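Schema walk-through. Below, the input block comes first and the output block second. Nothing else is stored per chain. Lengths vary across the set, and this one has 927 residues.
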Amino acid sequence: MFAKLPQTLTAPFGLLTDEAKLAFRSRPQGISKLYTTRHIAETDSYWDQYFTLFDTPSDVFSLISTHDIRRALLDSPENVATLIRVVTSRLFNLVSDHTFPSALPASVASYATSFIKTSSTERNATKEVLNSLRVLQRVLPVVFEVEGESNAFELEVLWKKVEVDDEIMPTAPEQAPQFVIEDDEDGSESGHGSNMPSQTPQPKRTKTLPSLGEKLFTCVNDLLFCCGFSLPTKIQVDHYKINYVIWEKGVGSTTDSGPNHAYDSNKTEVLRLLLVLLSRQIYIPPAALFTHPSFYTLHVVRKTPRRDVLTLLCSLLNTVINSATTNNMTIASVAGKVPYNHLVFKGEDSRTALVGMCLQVLCVLLDFQSGPARDILSESGDATSSSPTAQTNAFRYFLAKLHRTQDFAFILSGIIGILEQQLAISNNLLPGSRKSAPYVPETIVLFWKIIELNKKFRAYLLDSDKAVDVLAYLLCYSLEIKDKPQQHGLCRALSYIIQTLSAESAFGNKLSSPINIQIPTKWVSQGTSHGTAGDFMITSIYSIIATTSGSLNSIYPALIIALANAAPYFKNLSVVASNRLLQLFTSFSNPLFLLSDESHPRLLFLMLEVFNSVVFHHLSDNPNLLYAIITAQKTFEELGTFTLARGLREIQRVQQIKEEQASQVERDRKDGPQQERASVESAHQEKLRLLKNESDPAFAIAMDIESTSFSGDDLEVGLGGQEQTETRPLTSPPSENSPTTSTRTIKSASEKARGKMKARRSLSSDTINGDRMAAAGVGRNGFLPTQEWVTSWQQGLPLDTVMLVISELLPKIQNLQAGRQKANSAGAITDFLQSATLTDVLPPAPVFYPRRFVWSDASIVWLTSLIWGGVYVHGMSPLGIWNSTNVRLFFVKHTQPQQRQITDTMSSVVGGLFSPTRQRPERSSNQ
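--- output ---
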């Protein structure tokens, strides 16, 4: 009875066709024929296996390597061209064939038996279409890499247009208006020709067929809106299976077809091919990014019909936004809420993969500005701005045209939902119990693009109650990733977003509002509890700058500019936030930091602007900041008399103290064993001796010097330690304890400030050659500070306002301290500063001009590299789409594999039972 079983089923039971796949790598008729046999005909049966052999994307990327394609391009380039033509031709024919798409399996049993290879020769059109997409995904990146800028192969295969005889000219006039609407000149010419048919029959009987690349993009768009493949069959109209409707409810649509695993998986496959086509851009060096634009991206953003652009844009956008509010009860969604589920269930579900792919495509299309796709410059008054048009980049243009309030509310709620999910993961009581959302960086870039392009959305955001929440989410995510070098590019993007928001007056008006979201406890200790948005903004920026050891110095200007933009709106700053501002100022005024780079004095200038803005706009509303400024009067005075020689002497002094401390520690280490051997004292006597050493005045002075001096060689020297709170009375200067000496110094400084004169010391005339040698050792990257350079920025520091405030308020505070007990002086000083007014003394407030973020060629190239770098990393696993190809837009650094952690071991032991290799092949297509 089992005599015919081996004839109908292959070993074992015909599952997965492993034998045929392995033979594809080894037998002569497999992949090796592509580069060993020249001029394989398009009608050869060899090409059929590329459509029927593979079951998953992993099959294609594992059985066809980049080395195989690269070798074929070198030895048999005509075969690669034939492969592309055969695959695309089969794809075009299948999409229009009545057998596509194949019916989905109705049950689990039919789904499983669909993998059994029987004697039936029934054609699976959907599988052939998917394999066509996968083969193109594998071949095209290697073609892009080999050709580079000299893209002769691409132009010949994908972009060559052919003129053919037009044999159906009599029917053309009825269909012509559908294609001539966009160009009136062509319409007039065709109308003119119809009046003289006898004179122009020959020139008009030829037409230009679209290139292979153009037809491929049209096919990709059709597949994204194909009923039964990427959309439900219930929305199909008659026999037209291509229906351009928005996928989900949201912008431009109120209907929702509901989620479907197979449809989501197919959309991901098509979008992956679209992303591969757009990735031609990463094989162009940064210097040529604007002069050598990608033909593929140019076609998408400039040649795609308006209907297709709007439908695709809204579909991608709605899919992303709805991901934060989905309530679908699926196995993947339920398992996602189980702690440590990502250690057991490997890979991403189809919905997560689709959302990530939509975000990547959106970011790439909205970012593209190269060649004729560059925004158009326009001048309004003294300002110059740029904006997209429908002819430059239709996706940027139509995103900028969104205007409905319900659309803005929908987009904002979705973006906040994604950021809220990420913050909840960071704030989880079980560390590492939930996997971070894989598309948060792309969400942040999308948010940046929306507020950049759509001014109405930016105004809506800043006028809403969610503005403070968005600021808190962005700052929290910056604090989360600031210590990860691979995320420093995203930190830079976040700093530019914060600068962009801070330039709006509506943003400043929100800074006095409290933060409504739950801040993680690890950042509450920095003064974020029971504080305003302004307090959290200051303490977060301080933490980002202070704890990154100079690795994020490229974002310091944007963050400090954001503080300067927001300073006129600061009210009721807390003690912690006020001290953080002073600590930033003190660190920026450190001679070692000032003299190490030519741009560092600019940060000091901005910090002084912060203080001046508070003084001019909300003096009495910030008593804590005023008190902090007054206690730092010595720092302001020394800055007003700063010279190169003094700065170098201070650096040498600090360095000498560090060396003495290091040598003392070394001597103590060596003398310790000898003292232990020679000591015969009792335990009680030893304790007394140690207490005596700790109470010695010399020991106390050394420790004081150590705690007040900088201990490093950059900005973080003054920021790396714990917060230092001034507790001494204002009448006691840092170097002396005598109130009389302090009073004389303060009175002298006050008299000069009352006259609105800067205290500038004359330059030292006894400069020695050693100063130049010391200066050469301070500057970085070949920078040599000179006295002329110091004078150029030191004379322009806006110190007058601060010195005037100190000179007016300091004597009055001294009188309060002298007449009250120490326990009551703090409250009295606070009350006094809250009622202080200097309107009769201060000059008129200058006109405030916020510093907006301005795009430059360098910043555009940087963001393009950042976006494509993220796409490249996402594509590395599990498929490795662009792996082992020569990327030119950015540098790919391969690191050594890290030592396995406990979670990896647990994943291998437990997760092996649920690994993708043990599941049905379709699961891996969603990864």
